[in-house]
Design goal:
- The protein has 219 residues and is of the alpha+beta class.
- Among the domains are: 67 residues; 86 residues, no CATH class.
- It contains 6 helices and 9 strands; from the N terminus they run ααβαααββββββαββ.
- The strands form 2 sheets. It has a 5-stranded mixed β-sheet, covered by helices on one side. Strands 1-2-3-4 form a 4-stranded antiparallel β-sheet, with helices on both faces.
- A hairpin with a 5-residue loop joins strand 3 and strand 4.
- It is rod-shaped, with a radius of gyration of 31 Å.
- The two termini are 45 Å apart.
Length: 219
């Protein structure tokens, strides 16, 4: 946005024309006048191509979705068998004749349950933490199962807080982010400590000494 002030102002120098030449007869480069452009190009460095390490959710977080999928598969198999059973069997009566009174047939319900179970399983396995040489990405679930994903560059992190197998990150703007619990907590802690030492990021390790007290060790 431009601001206008009263009084005399010194006119800004006009940018060089594309056909302008210097005393030696060479065309003037735009980077000779706007030096910041050349400085930005020289200071820019592409991100490193290091490997990424993924940490999935713990086993207790994966069990509910696995049980849901197993129940959906069992229901689908029973429904498929009921439609092909003998007309005098109880399963046939329950499935085929019962569909006359239902808003949705058992076959449609079985398909919907199977799709829902697969989506729940995929969503569960997407949770966790991904660590690379340049950033940390964590994915979790908010209330009502709403997924949340955030990626933080290492320059945004000012401190790594270690609490057992859990990791917290203090950010440059004063915010605090707690990484979700993962299956290999100790391995994640070691990897985060490695990057913190490599990038000279402060580390605080919390040690629980009593039921009500917590002591901290800083590095």
């Amino acid at each position: 946005m431009l601001s206008v002030t009263s009084g005399s102002q010194t006119p800004s120098p006009e940018p060089p024309r594309p056909d302008a030449v210097d005393d030696d007869g060479d065309r003037i480069s735009i980077t000779d006048v706007h030096g910041t452009v050349a400085h930005f190009e020289m200071a820019y460095s592409p991100p490193s191509s290091g490997s990424k390490t993924k940490f999935g959710p713990p086993l207790r977080a994966r069990i509910p979705s696995a049980l849901y999928l197993a129940a959906a598969v069992v229901f689908g198999v029973v429904t498929w068998y009921a439609y092909g059973a003998s007309p005098s069997s109880k399963l046939f009566v329950w499935a085929v004749e019962g569909d006359r009174m239902r808003p949705l047939s058992l076959g449609v319900v079985a398909v919907l349950l199977l799709v829902s179970a697969l989506a729940t399983l995929f969503r569960t396995h997407m949770r966790g933490v991904i660590v690379s040489d340049d950033w940390v990405e964590f994915r979790s679930l908010l209330a009502f199962g709403i997924p949340r994903a955030r990626r933080l560059g290492w320059p945004q992190v000012t401190r790594v807080v270690v609490d057992g197998e859990r990791i917290g990150l203090e950010l440059y703007d004063g915010a605090f982010e707690r990484l979700p619990e993962v299956a290999e907590g100790q391995r994640l802690v070691r990897l985060m400590m490695h990057h913190a030492v490599r990038l000279r990021i402060h580390v605080t390790a919390l040690e629980r000494v009593n039921r009500g007290g917590v002591s901290s060790t800083r590095r």
